[in-house]
Amino acid sequence: METFDSYALFLLIVIPLAGAAVIMLVPSRMARAIRWAATVAAAANLLLSFYVVAAYDFEEGGFQFQRAWDWIQIPGPWSHGDKAITLNLGMDGIAAPMVLLTGIVLFTGVLISWRIANRNKDFFILYLLLLSGVFGVFVSVDMFFFFFFYELAVLPMYLLIGVWGSSSTFPTFSRTKEYSAMKLMLYLVAGSVLVWIAIMAIFVEAGLGTFNLMELQNVTLDNDFQRVFFPFLMVGFGVLAGLWPFHTWSPDGHVAAPTAVSMVHAGVLMKLGAFGIIRVGMLLMPEGAQDWMPVLIGLGTVNVLYGAWSAMGQTDLKYVIGYSSVSHMGYVMMGLATLHSLGVAGAVLQMLSHGLMTALFFAVVGVVYDRTHTRDMTVLDGLAKRMGFTAVLFALAGLASLGLPGLSGFVAELLVFLGLFHTFPVLGVLGIIGAGITAVYILRLLARVFFGPIGEQWKDQTDASGVERIGAIVLAGFILLVGLFPFPFIRVINSGVMELLARFEGIG
User: Which end of the chain is more exposed for a tag (fewer CB within 10 A), N or C?
Assistant: First the structure.
């Protein structure tokens, strides 16, 4: 008998689409109705994401809430050609925290976007389409639909940045929103090409006639094949994850993007890249992953140090957070590359933690920019005296970023470091050095922008509005929840991590 649970993941994808469809029918002049329609859709998805994560049975593990709809048959000598492409949905312990993260960022991003007046109808339609794609990636158990939703999550970014973004001029260069949007699109499309090549190669090599990941994981692909095609996935997905040296699109995209899009970009989209490496690369090609993990952990270490050092030299708040995101995604790559239960679990928890704190970062930076019309650290000073709420929330995000105990970042980074010291202790030392650099630029930023004497031009500033406060409080609450009570999240994550790492037993 069919139950609500069998449709829960499908609804996660459909509700944002339904919200976008409703908004299409609302006249553009009814801006308030449009905002409320987007908010209701986002709130419904947030509640549903809570439900599926809370109801996930970590003791049973595996893919739960499964449901499949057959779509295309491929005739030929295939054992599974009758189910070649299916909308096959399921959620495991690794996808669960990502579903929750997406629900939180979707809801808070809509609240932060209430102040958008320019073509808000078009904005919310594209925003909801993007988030529908993100949910689809995390719950798809079919490689074809995985890639379809992956592209649905990426392509709207071009318009969201190119239309609603902002251009910036710096002393030595300028970044127009058109430049940033096009750079983002070229990088991500190039990465998608590599991913699609690998997916098609896996389909042919497996010889089953299906894109179903649950069937494909039972096929042992040739070792040489894995060694050749795993780098396609590592680099292709790595581009979206901000993997050095393919990261430069990300800080530029952050600077140009509107606030809610920056929240989604850093909070969720970059996680799609790391998740893709896990879901497709590590699951289907464990031997290839084993061989290439030293390269991934090396690039991840560069991410951590280069991103942190680059953030030190920035004066634009969004560039600081953008390079900080590159650095923190390095910890994710390092954790995955350890192939140790602690490191991989830490990497997944870091994806959740970084998504929350970065979304909060950009939310409060959006408030600052909206009031002051600048993000220049050399101009901003003493804002805490007029924007106390914003200052407290920015400090909370910053302290989570540098790994203060009691906040989400500490637990995640601790697990990654433990995994590193079990496998690559020297790189573990470098990772801790990166965390030290993070503390320096975060504390310097806080001292410069929010504390100290207030500038004369900022004495009439107002703090965050009621709607903006609700969004920021939700994000801050989850940063504290994960930091103070991490074990429910870790148990769920471990159920997925242990099943993944079982694929690597006996290799090497």
Answer: N
Q: Answer whether 403's CB lies under 8 Å from 367's CB.
A: no
- How many Å from the N-terminal Cα to the C-terminal Cα in the chain? 45
Closest CA to 40 of 110, 144, 136, 116: 110
Could you say which DSSP state residue 384 is in?
Answer: G
Average pLDDT value for residue range 414-426:
89
Q: Which residue type, as a one-letter code, is found at position 502?
A: A
Give CA–CA dist 375/262, Å, rounded. Answer: 14
Residue 33 lies in domain: 5-504
The H or E element spanning position 309 is helix 286-312
Which residues face 169 on adjacent strands? Answer: 174
Amino acid in position 59: E
How many structural domains compose the chain?
1
What gap in Å lies between CA 243 and CA 234, rounded to an integer? 9
Which of the 8 DSSP states describes residue 26?
S
Longest distance between any two alpha carbons in the chain, whole Å: 76
Task: Please answer whether residues 416 and 343 qualify as being in contact, where contact means their C-beta atoms are separated by less than 8 angstroms.
Answer: yes
CB 272 within 8 A of CB 221: no
Q: Buried b vs exposed e over 147-169: b needs ≥16 C-beta within 10 Å?
A: bbbbbbbbbbbbbbbbbbbbebe
Q: Which residue has the tokens 């990502």?
A: 98
Paired tokens of 444: 């310097």
Q: Residue 99 to residues 13, 52, 94, 407: CA-CA distances in angstroms?
A: 11, 9, 9, 20
What is the rounded distance in angstroms from the CA atom of residue 347 to the CA atom of residue 480? 18
Cβ contacts of 460 within 8 Å, gap of 6 or more:
386
Collapse the DSSP code of 66 into the 3-class scheme (helix H, G, I; strand E, B; otherwise coil) and give the result.
strand
Residues 367 and 275 sit within 8 Å (Cβ to Cβ): no
Q: What are the strands, taking DSSP E only, across 64-184?
A: 64-72, 85-91, 168-169, 174-175
CA within 13 Å, CB half, 243: 28
Residues forming a β-bridge with 212: 142
**Is the pTM value of this prediction over 0.85?**
yes
* pLDDT band, very low/low/confident/very high, at 75 (cuts 50, 70, 90): confident
Residue of 204, 127, 184 whose CA lies nearest to 160: 127
Q: Which residues pair with 142 in a beta bridge?
A: 212
For 200-232, the pLDDT digits (tens) are 999 888 878 788 888 888 888 888 888 888 999
Consecutive H or E run containing 90: strand 85-91
Q: Write the DSSP symbol of residue 267.
A: I
β-pairing, 85-91 vs 64-72, is antiparallel
